[in-house]
Design brief:
Blueprint lengths: L1 H24 L6 H29 L5 H42 L5 H29 L5 H24 L6 H29 L22 H10 L7 H28 L1
Helix pairs in contact: 1-3, 1-4, 1-5, 1-6, 2-4, 3-4, 3-6, 3-8, 6-7, 6-8
Length: 273
């Protein structure tokens, strides 16, 4: 459940930071707390509705076969993680600047407080939507997990993300946000590689990929995948005791894509700013 907690922590932290930036920029706005709370509430309700819709959609797609559903969910989750690792990471400073400008424009009267509510709601909804897709993909990749542990891990990640966001912007501790995100960026990149490896295995099991499906090695006698440490490494870096060449290729290609994409976009974003 480490992957679930990590994903929810990162997404809730991003939402908390966005809300915190806007709140800091609108300290003199009358009724600020009411508008901010309403925006968060609308965003949360939208994310819950999306989660319920995703569950129903999964039920409708069961007729296509579980392998096809799993491949679809893993593919969507992997695509979202790649977008997150490359685009969001390189544009985080620009997004923070946009949040500050929004708050100032509302406080100065150039925009109505409704713009504040809508922006907050969309930010929370966006992070909630990504959380639904990411968690769904990680659960499918891990072979399914009972609802109780998944909810507990998600709640833990949510509380941790909100707490760190509050600490950073309340000034109770000098924790640069870039340090927090640097660590989570690395962990999420490894999680993306793990999902890519699981996607390769799902494609092989469904018969869509037949090349490189033979296991390259077997380390189950050294570290059992169902042991406590094996389970932890599976969640952290996608440990597989019997990986195939296709799984290894998907894993490494994903990490290479994230590295190359980030290196390619970073200078362009810096020069544009």
């Amino acid at each position: 459940m480490f992957a679930t907690a990590l994903i929810v922590f990162r997404e809730s932290l991003e939402a908390a930071l966005f809300v915190g930036i806007v709140a800091a920029a609108t300290r003199g706005l009358s009724g600020r707390a009411r508008w901010l709370s309403a925006g968060v509430g609308v965003g949360v309700l939208g994310a819950i509705a999306l989660a319920l819709l995703a569950q129903r959609l999964s039920g409708w797609l069961d007729g296509l076969g579980q392998d096809v559903v799993n491949i679809g969910v893993l593919s969507i989750a992997l695509a979202m993680l790649l977008w997150h690792c490359v685009w969001v990471t390189t544009h985080s400073r620009e997004m923070a600047s946009g949040a500050k400008q929004l708050g100032r424009s509302v406080e100065d009267g150039h925009r109505t407080p409704w713009a504040l509510l809508v922006a907050i709601a969309l930010a929370v909804l966006r992070e909630g939507a990504e959380t639904v897709l990411f968690v769904g993909g990680s659960l499918v990749g891990s072979g399914g997990t009972s609802t109780g542990p998944a909810l507990a891990a998600g709640l833990l990640g949510l509380l941790a993300g909100a707490l760190v966001g509050v600490i950073i912007y309340a000034g109770l501790a000098r924790i640069p946000a870039r340090h927090v995100f640097s660590v989570t960026n690395l962990l999420i990149a490894l999680l993306a590689g793990s999902l890519a490896s699981q996607l390769a295995r799902a494609l092989a099991q469904a018969g869509f990929v037949n090349v490189g499906s033979t296991p390259l090695w077997d380390t189950s006698h050294l570290l059992a995948p169902d042991s406590a440490f094996g389970t932890f490494l599976r969640a952290l870096i996608g440990y597989d005791a019997q990986p195939s060449a296709a799984q290894l290729a998907f894993y490494l290609a994903t990490l290479l894509f994230i590295y190359a994409g980030t290196r390619w976009l970073a200078p362009r974003v810096a020069s544009a700013g």
